[in-house]
Fold each of these.
Amino acid sequence: MIKFLLNGSWVMETELDPNMSVLRYLRTKRGLSGSKEGCASGDCGACTVLIGERSKGNGSQTVKYHAVNSCITLLGAMHGKHIVTVDGLNINEETHPVQQAMIASHGSQCGFCTPGIVMSLVGLRESQTSCSRKDVLESLSGNLCRCTGYRPIIDAAMASFDVADNKNIINTTPAWSAPEQEEVAGLHTVDADYFSPTSEAELTELLTKYPGARLIAGGTDLALEISQNYRSFDCLISLSDIEELTELSEAGNTLYVGAAATYSQVMPWLKTWYPEVVELFERIGSLQIRNRGTVGGNIANASPIADTPPVLLALDASLELASTAGRRVLSLKDFFLSYKQTQLQNGEYIRRIILPKPESNAIVKLYKVSKRYEDDISAVMAAFYLELEGARIKTVRLAFGGMAAVPKYADHAQTKLVGAEFTEASVAAAISALGEDFAPLSDVRASSAYRLKTAQNLLRKAYLEIANNMSLGVFSHA
Ligand SMILES: Cc1cc2nc3c(=O)[nH]c(=O)nc-3n(C[C@H](O)[C@H](O)[C@H](O)COP(=O)(O)OP(=O)(O)OC[C@H]3O[C@@H](n4cnc5c(N)ncnc54)[C@H](O)[C@@H]3O)c2cc1C
Ligand code: FES
Ligand code: FES
């Protein structure tokens, strides 16, 4: 059984298809057709809804709302949450301030994208008291509109902060009692199960009982197998509600990132140590994707064009893996075996990502090359980490995505740099050596020659940026 709030009313569900998305549930089981299906792949934002979640720990009753793509969010993940849809936005026929501003600014034409846009902007307006243009663009990064043009929509977003608040579904959320649950929450049919354990002990028990189960975190990769390939999973076990797996902590010189923490959770925390990484994360998918997607999912999915593996390789990350057999720590560089093949054994999961804090002389340079700034997958992802001692390169790690079947270091290029003086000549030698490191594929995103040339140019760009900063004396990481 799962129990959740839907537009302010408690709902219980048990015997529903564990592969069912929130969007399918809303439209086919609840008659809530305001949320639209445009792409069913998390790209267009027409299906955007808000999910309210209590902050974890300390018995806190603070509820935070964030926008998600309901087409790739599975219903099973909704236990204990509040789903707010465009249909439920108004109470007593009053339009929400965002809706009023959209009307006044002529922010809608055909209207298909409008419900999703309204929900993204409601998410923004409900989470802060004022907003900048950058906030608006970020909140709209996962919403495509083909006919209005974004100017009136952006105007509406800004203006909505001046419209007086009314009684809307979010600020009248009923008292939030913890859902009582004797067994692990989930959805079950005769053919399939969805489990939402809340502790690693429950997870381990489920993995023992269902060794063939598929793990799911945010589902922003996995749910596409259902929505695009019409696949059906017999048993899904969610990692999203397991507190140990969403923890962010530090001890000494080490950072620990819970594998099931979402990008949106990780970003404000990681900014203290790695602001460059957070800036890069701002380009991963859209806000809706970052509100669900996890770093652990990005690594386990083992796509050669995923953005975080090259970054984490450059930062010398390790993974803590766990299973019923116990725990082990593995360097990330040993994790990827071949295309989409990893060291993960059956029933084993990534528990957390272990990152060293940066040295005071560390230089981190990250470059994502894609056709759009956000909501797009990389053609090439380059991640560089250097430590210099005087003019000499003490440590260097050059990692790339999109250049081989797995995210990997440029070993030959690194050899040209380590121990060498950081000069144009040594960097030029490393740039040539990239040709020995990689023979990239041509595909829909880029040709082989384009990828290699881009990788070489990115290394040159990093050199020029660093050299420029050095001459200006802006050099230390801190
Ligand atoms: C519109 C859109 C835009 C995107 N943009 C980007 C982008 O810019 N850059 C990018 O890199 N990716 C992008 N992605 C891909 C995806 O969002 C990321 O890979 C995300 O980090 C996946 O995390 P998740 O929690 O949703 O994984 P899930 O979909 O839940 O899981 C992915 C895989 O990992 C496994 N898994 C998940 N967590 C664990 C764990 N802790 N241990 C073991 N196995 C686990 C699952 O079984 C599954 O096989 C995009 C996806 C969409 C739909
Ligand atoms: S339908 Fe396009 S993002 Fe969900
Ligand atoms: S108003 Fe038509 S797609 Fe946005």
Note: The chain has 15 helices and 20 strands.
Amino acid sequence: MARLSQTRLTRYRELADKGLWDINDKDFRSFYTRAAAEGAELVSNNFSAAGMFRAPHRKTLEGVDIALVGIPLDLGVPNPRPGTRLGPKELRYWSLDRNLVHYKTKVCPFDICNIIDWGDVEFTDDAYNLAACLEQIHADYESFADRDIATLTIGGEHTCTYSVLRALSREGEEPLAVIHLDAHGDTSTNFGGTRISDATLFQVATCEGYIDPEKTIQIGLRGRGVPRCDFSRDSGMRIVYVDELQESGVAAIIEEIYRTIGSGRCYLSIDTDVLDCAVMPGTTLPEPFGLSGVEVRDIIRGAADLDVVGADLMELSPPWDPTGMSSCLASGLAFELLCLLAEAKLRRNGTPKLTHWSGDSS
Ligand SMILES: [Mn+2]
């Protein structure tokens, strides 16, 4: 049997004889070496040790740039596919399998911003009452907005985004511009007999003055969402049906995003059902003929020059995702969102700040 020469075997064995983080890639090596030295849990899947994307668990908000937040809610989901309340838990699990340095851009969010895993919004009192839950979300997100903390939210039904937009909207400031990726417009009226739901939130947010419909672009609409887009169209939102994206390509749609959003503060909201049902069965209202994971990824990357002050990934529904691959894909998109938020926050801050694992762990 042919064997490699002893000289080559010796060389390969020397190359392989490295410490865990002693990796050639200097960006990767420097971050992981620092985080390990600070006591970050970089290997184990123990949630008590490692937060979402291995961020430190913190409740204190002083000096924080970005909070990772779960909203485990599906109280307002009327169809027979509940389960989004389990979205944050499953995304946390899959987030531990992602690199923390972007493999392509070399961006490490934790080396440019102070990032915490704040945990989940807790619904203790009035947990059966959707309106009360939305008030709880609003109260928590006001504490982030008061400190200019950008949030990456993992849902949870899309209704929750209403409370986030409400908290981000400030007296005396322009209403937010919105990039909204979804199979549905979510601008219906009184759908299912309630004013605020995952079918109406962008209409209500418009009518209450939180978002500017003329600076809102809805991407990926199709199927049962199409006949319910009257308010989107009539109020001046830019609607990109999935067919337009698939015919003209992501680059052309990114140009439309910049043209619609302009240079002001904007929010990026992704409903997981914008993805094709074949790659995203784990969502409340799956729709055929949707976007690929790569298309959604490239839209997120394409938004890199916008002033994004918050982002979310909603409607992830693990009970309908028996292989876990919907959540795996969602975790990859969530990391792209984290990089996007961190770079936008760095521009607003002016100078980089570090995430620290050592020190205060309250
Ligand atoms: Mn939606």
Note: Residues 34-349 form a domain with the Arginase; Chain A fold (CATH 3.40.800.10).
